[in-house]
Amino acid sequence: MKKVPLHIQILLALILGAAFGAFFSINKNKLEITYKKNSNQVVESIKNWNSGYLIANDSTIAKFSSNDQIAIINKFKHLYSNSRESIKLTFETEKGKFEYTDVVAVKKEHTLATYIKPVGDLFIRLLSFLAIPLVISTLIVGAASLTDFKKLGRIGIKTFSLYLLTTTIAITIGLGLANIISPGTRIDPQSKERLMSSFQEESAEKAVETLDISIVDFFVEIVPKNPFDAISNGNMLQIVFLAVIFGITLTLIEKSKRETVLKFFDGVSDTMIKMVDLFMLIAPYGVFALIAATIADFGFEILTTLIWYIVAVILGLFVQTYVVYGSLLKFLGKASLKDFFLNIRNAQAIGFSTSSSAATLPITLDCVENKMNTNKEIAGFVLPLGATINMDGTALYQGVAAVFIAQVYGFDLTVVEQMTIVLTAVLASVGTAPVPGVGIIMLVMILNAINIPAQGIALILGVDRILDMLRTITNVTGDAAVAVTVANTEKNFTIE
Ligand code: ASP
To answer: Most buried residue, 74, 157, 190, 274, by CB count within 10 Å?
Structure first.
């Protein structure tokens, strides 16, 4: 029997995983309560409550209605652990009243779809495991192969300019669509209240994470004090700095020594790429598990509430991925669009399922170098850099989200404020770590810059996961499009 090609297997895994997740979806009116009873922990489920109360010292501190599952979990999770003991959780159901004291945890139920999630987590861990050595080795080899400074300078400038250009276009598209579609004025006040109360605590937590970001520090901190610290903390920007500077300096030392070091890193890079092939054997299973768990856990009701916001983001991502990159590849890169979009599918599917440009990097490299036959040294330089600093999908989404939140709060953004969004979003997209869910944290920085309450992210947290998956497709495709374009404009490029 002929073997089914990997991209078909992954596509099938995506579709089947989604169906499986939808079938074994989590009941949104059910909670699992763990509480202490005679010094034992007991787990009990509670379903279909009409109302719920969080009571502390005989006074109600929060009241919930039947579809407040997330609000209940979040409220409880963010209680100080020492105050949990004095808390009472009460539910009123058709069958009577249920009361819990000494509650340890309040969680959603598990279903078959969430039980298999570890397979997906394993897949992401395997990919993330090889991301750092791969970035270091390919970037060192990439930078060092561009031996002549003029060439390196030219390729560097082209790469940075294209990354900057595509990111600026992305935010502009995001802002444009958000202004035209005006999703924030289409949300009804009740939905706003519900979203704010469900995600209040989580948004406050995320807002705190970015409090101490300053632009000057941001640039200063790109230089690691200790390269091994940078590697062990997985600080991608610092790792990129380390690898590029190492690669460039390598070209300045004696040829025989340089070749030894280069051979070593080239070998490491090849080994990592071979490892990708091995890990990809479980890709269909990993993708299936990841999608199944996400769909099972996803609250689809929220989609209708935020439908215009989602439409604006998806439309923008589509235009960026196919129109902007399509034009870039066609007019500047003189590349075949059919070849590009057919060969990039694996990277897109893995980007979508893992929500991480870094985890996807090995696959992007494989698609661009092997399937599209792009110059290895150029791709090795442009792609790891792009996975770290170029996040067009994230920037676009941040543009839409900032305007959306401003609209909901009734702020009219001036041209200067919209320009501020463009500037901060370019910076934020450079600083966004290529891992799931960081885009929304950087959004807080943008909101602070235009004086919009950062708690506003509570409005969009519920759909962030699904949009994160989609924007990662654009992030990954953008890196590949720039790599192919730069390589094609350097056709005469040869290595000494
Ligand atoms: N998940 C995105 C990426 O890795 C970053 C983000 O937007 O959160 O590309």
So the answer is: 74
